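EI: anyone free to look at a 279-residue chain?
SC: sure, send it
EI:
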Amino acid sequence: MPEYKVYTSQFDETIRAQDLISEKELDTLNNYMAQANPLADTPQGTTKFANTRQNASVTLLLDNSGSLRGQGILDVINFTSLAGQFFDHAGTPFEILGFTTKEWKGGQSRKKWLEAGRTQSPGRLNDLRHIIYKSFDDDWPDARRNLAIMHKKGLLKENIDGEALQWANQRSTEHGAARRIVIHVSDGAPIDDSTLSCNNSDILADHFNLVSLEIAQSAAELYNIGINYKVKKHHDSKLIVTPSQSPQMVFDNLMDKIIKDTPVTMHRGFPIPKRRLIV
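SC: here you go
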């Protein structure tokens, strides 16, 4: 497998979600969400999880790609809202991250590559946009409003999952909990037309699979959720969101597995690192 590389990170961006939008537009999107997509406010099963969590943290990493426009992004928002309610009620530190690109067709990275003479196999060739919807330090009632930003026109573009997963895992590691849970939600394989048109066609998928395997073999617990998408290759088990499965059903199934996967010694405060725990 060729080594993954990045042509330039000069134009990449990590940004808080609320900095992408005006307060007025955020109010409008939240009003739309409240009318079109009401959610229950009472999380279920938090006591059982709280009794096992000890020193645990959860990172939710959300695909913000263009293919999710419409019902797909509604499913992501609903699932994330349920997760936020649950972990907030359980007293578990958690954060919510999103990933996309700043532009279609390669953005400033591709422009720089073209001006430099179009070197062969340049590596990743688009400007990343990593979004913080809720940090570990943010209060959930305030941060919950940010989920509506996923409905912002023009936000959802390409998805480069491998680097996003590295970023999410690094943030989780820096938070320092003994039990680290990373939940990756996506509707398909990594795709960026600019990158794929100039490199091996498997460059993004291979990197994502490699990063997934490395994380799952570390002390972290990695769960991959496919939205109408079958998670492949390095994933031993999977949870597939279908039209017949509501976000509530998906979340309930996920939490059943997370609770079941809790190391026995967590109850005594001495966590055993899990190896490959992937839904």
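EI: The chain has a mean pLDDT of 85.
SC: 👍
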